[in-house]
Amino acid sequence: MEKNEEIKKTVQEILSQIINLPAEQINFNKPLADIPNIDSICMLQFLVALEREFNVIIGYTDMDQIFYNIKSIADYIINNIKHDQA
């Protein structure tokens, strides 16, 4: 599996674990606000889990831009992950 696809799958799986919804039911392009079981606490848990998993810091100003859907989050991580991790 290509590294970028791995990252997208991992992002999807992290969210799946937090909101107790099978990963297959989380559409990459669906707005996060439209995914069942998501609330503000889940979003904070998701943010922390992403930062830990990928060793990235998601800045406050970036959150509004990337926390739209799984695709935008994965793209952000792909573009900001340290190259020695990729």
Report on the architecture of this protein.
The protein has 86 residues and is an all-alpha fold. It has one domain: Non-ribosomal Peptide Synthetase Peptidyl Carrier Protein, Chain A (Orthogonal Bundle). The chain is 58% helix and 0% strand. The protein contains four helices and no strands. The longest helix has 17 residues, at 3-19. The mean pLDDT is 89.
List descriptors.
Non-ribosomal Peptide Synthetase Peptidyl Carrier Protein, Chain A; 58% helix; 86 residues; mainly alpha
How much is the radius of gyration in Å?
12 Å
Strand content: under 5%
Structural class: mainly alpha
Rough outline: globular
CATH names the topology as: Non-ribosomal Peptide Synthetase Peptidyl Carrier Protein, Chain A
Low-confidence stretches: none
* SSE order, one letter for each helix or strand: HHHH
- The first-level CATH class is given as Mainly Alpha
The average pLDDT is 89
Helix content: 55-70%
Question: Between the first and last Cα atoms, what is the distance in angstroms?
Answer: 13 Å
* Largest sheet entry: none
CATH superfamily (homologous) name: ACP-like
Second rung of CATH, namely the architecture: Orthogonal Bundle
Strand elements, count:
0
Number of helices: 4
Number of domain modules: 1
